[in-house]
Every structure is written in C-alpha cells, then in structure tokens.
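To the team - nicotinamide-adenine-dinucleotide complex, inputs and output below.
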Amino acid sequence: MKVLEYMERYDYEQLSVYTDRSVGLRAFIAIHDTTLGPALGGTRIWPHPTEEDALSDVLRLARAMTYKNAAAGLNLGGGKALIIADASKDKTETMMRAYGQFVESLGGRYVTTEDVGSTTQDMEWIAQETSHVTGLPVNQGGSGDPSQMTGFGVYQGMKACAKEIWGSDSLQGRVIAMQGYGKVASYLTEHLLKERVQVIVADVSPRALERARKQGLRIVEDPQSIFDVECDIFAPCALGGAINSKTIPRLKGKLVAGCANNQLLEEGDADALQKRGILYAPDFIINAGGVINLSFEIDRPYDEEAAREKTARIYDTMERVIFTAKKEEITTAKAADRLAEERINSVKKVRKIYI
Ligand code: NAD
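Output:
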C-alpha cells in the first residue's frame, strides 16, 4: 500500500504511529477530516497479520467515521485507532494506559471510544492518561458501551428499508440471516425478537454461538454458509468487506442491513447489489447510534432519553437516502455519501467572524 498516495487521494489529514515495546503496544491513529469537529472513532484491537492489513483497516475506518458523523448531523470529524494485538490475550492495563498517552499527545484532535476488541474497562484505563475518551462506564458519568444504542439505530434503519421494500415497516415474520453475533448483533436481536422475527446466526466464536443458542436462535454451523441461507434480510454484523463480488451472487434476501463498518469491499459492490434488486442500507447511516450516543457524553452531562430520540431519527435519515437514490437514479451508497459530503462542504462555507 502506498500510504501517502492513498491519504492524498482521499484527503486524510494525519496518520500517527506509536510503539512501546515494554508494554507490547503497536498502534496507529488515523485522522481523516476535522472540518466538523474533533475526530471521533473507536479503538480497534485486532491481531492483523501484516502492517499493510492494519494500515488499510485503520485508514478505511477513519474515513468512514467522517461520513458517519457528518451524516448523523454531529459536530464531530472522523478518525480511528488500531492496536495490533489479540484483545483476549495481549491486553493489559499498562498497554491501555500507554495508549492513553498516545491519544493525549494528539491534544484533542482525536477522541477515542470502544470498538471491536475494546471495552468500557479499557476506556477507564485510557481515561487515567487522557480526557479525550468517551464511552466511560455509567457509574463514572459516561454513557457506557455504545453497542446498545447502535443496535437500536440499526433496527430503526432496517424498519425504514422494510417500508420501502414491503410497504410496511413491520418486520414481523421476516427471516434475518446474521453474520456475527457480537455485542451490537445481540442488542439488535432483542428488538427483532420482540417483533417475532426469525434470526439465524453464524459466528466464528464458540462463546458467541453459545449465547445465541441460549436465546433459542437457529445457528448455521459453517460460518461461510450464512450467505446461502434463505432469508428476507442479510445482516452483516461481523467485520468489514463481507459484501463483495463473491458473496453478492449468493445472497437470497431483498435487503442488506447490519451494523458492521465498511460492509462493501469495493465501491462497485453497491451497483452489483442494486442490479440484483437488493436494497442496501448504507452501514454508516444505520450504525450511527453509538456515535450519536457518545456525542451526548462529550462536553455535557449524558442524557440517555435525548440520545435515544436522536438515534430514532436514523429511520428518517434512511428514508431520505432512499428518496435521494431514487430521485437521482444512484445507489443508496452514493446517496449516503452525498448527504455527508454536502454537510461537510456546507459547514466549510460558514463564515468565520471575530466574536
Ligand atoms: P463484537 O466483537 O462484539 O462482535 C463481532 C462478532 O463477529 C464476534 O462475535 C466475532 O466472533 C464475529 N465474527 C468475526 N468474524 C466473523 C466471521 N467471518 N463470520 C462470522 N462471525 C464473525 O463487535 P461489535 O461491537 O458487535 O461490532 C460489530 C461490527 O459493528 C463491527 O464491524 C464494528 O466495527 C461495527 N460497529 C460497532 C459499533 C458499536 O457500537 N459497537 C458501532 C458501529 C459499528
């Protein structure tokens, strides 16, 4: 990967690298765009096999955060952090505190929170070293793990899509094939089960499958065959790139809607879905509940009710994206990008006056 070329092509502002051999820390923080405010994005802890994989992941995720925060109407820019480590084995208090100092060194240009591999406990450790951290435990005045609000937002987005496809936003009796049954997927499932949706899951983690089994969900033993399951909705809830030229021809449903970031491997995958008559709910539109929740923790006492109300508006944003896509004859992915870009560009025009 030619990092500088890639960063110039997509207008990244900054990429920082940090190592501390004494605590086993190897981390990247990517800041994509801070037009709207400090870059907010989670810290992913993942044992990428190569530096190239890790860099590509953190850069892509940082840019997606710019779009997510802008489209959700937040005064926050986009960034992301990646620690190359296995969260189940390598994570320690000292590692997280050293990482907290790295975040602090950026002087508030980047604000961190949870992501795959990191928890509220990690945020507590990070907070020992920096104030630029959100998603702290509720007993410390924080909003806790954002996954619950993310799940609620995905559910709202799914309903808006259902209305477009089936003429009603009720999901009752629908069958959903879910790839990944982690934190967000579990919260999302709580809402789906209340509407008597049939949820079929696949996961690579035996622990996650055990939880799914206890909830009475149907399980697909081979995680790869989740793409072939007869369903109405395919929900990517694991890692990025699940929707690609190999998986799109296998999908059975009429809708792709889930919580995973960067679901499409390539830009052209949005066109391929549209050609197959499958509606795509752009990931950063419907999985914004977590950042919306966090925005209510930054600079003010956390108000859960207000955060929930704003997250419910993901339904309206999704409707707006579908409307634009139809009117402009573009994919929903393109319509979502436009929504975010229009907001960033219009804020750039706000005149700076001396006050
Ligand atoms: P998580 O780690 O709790 O869940 C991910 C699950 O996916 C795990 O159970 C893992 O075993 C499983 N998985 C990984 N690879 C898989 C594969 N190939 N097939 C099947 N299962 C697989 O993470 P989470 O917080 O629930 O996040 C899930 C996704 O949603 C991630 O892409 C994350 O970036 C995104 N997201 C999360 C939030 C949030 O608030 N947590 C917000 C926005 C987006």
